[in-house]
């Protein structure tokens, strides 16, 4: 019988509670890298770290706690308790945490002259033109 990922990490009970209760958001960046954003803080951007996983095991983190404390940080434990996330990291680096596949947008084709923007005022673009880069909000 193989060990679970959590059994392979060293962490305490407080760390496990924080990892399961705090408002983490995860983004798979590919090649075993998971961006972890802690939305529990007023400015989550200041609490954004990269957890590296080797296979299905979080191996390190870019947070200060990982550098200065013994054992796994709460970001690594948060990744470890979300088995579908680890499964996605181990099998398909381009798979997104929401189950979708990361794809690049097709290049904008200038030959498409007509769009809904032509029927709107100059300061209000249609939605398809915004992500295509034809117009800005």
UniProtKB/TrEMBL annotation:
The keyword Metal-binding applies. InterPro entries: Znf_SWIM. Residues 49-84 form the SWIM-type domain. GO terms for molecular function: zinc ion binding. Pfam families: SWIM. It comes from the Archaea. This is SWIM zinc finger family protein. It comes from Natrinema halophilum.
């Amino acid at each position: 019988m193989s060990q679970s990922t959590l059994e392979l990490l060293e962490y305490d009970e407080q760390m496990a509670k924080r990892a399961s209760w705090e408002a983490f958001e995860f983004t798979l960046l590919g090649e075993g890298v998971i961006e972890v954003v802690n939305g529990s803080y007023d400015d989550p951007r200041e609490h954004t770290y990269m957890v590296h996983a080797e296979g299905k095991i979080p191996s390190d983190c870019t947070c200060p706690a990982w550098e200065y404390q013994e054992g796994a940080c709460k970001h690594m434990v948060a990744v470890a308790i979300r088995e579908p996330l680890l499964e996605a990291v181990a099998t398909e680096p381009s798979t997104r945490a929401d189950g979708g596949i990361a794809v690049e947008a097709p290049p904008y084709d200038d030959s498409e002259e007509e769009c809904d923007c032509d029927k709107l005022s100059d300061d209000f673009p249609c939605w398809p033109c915004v992500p295509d880069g034809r117009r800005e909000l």
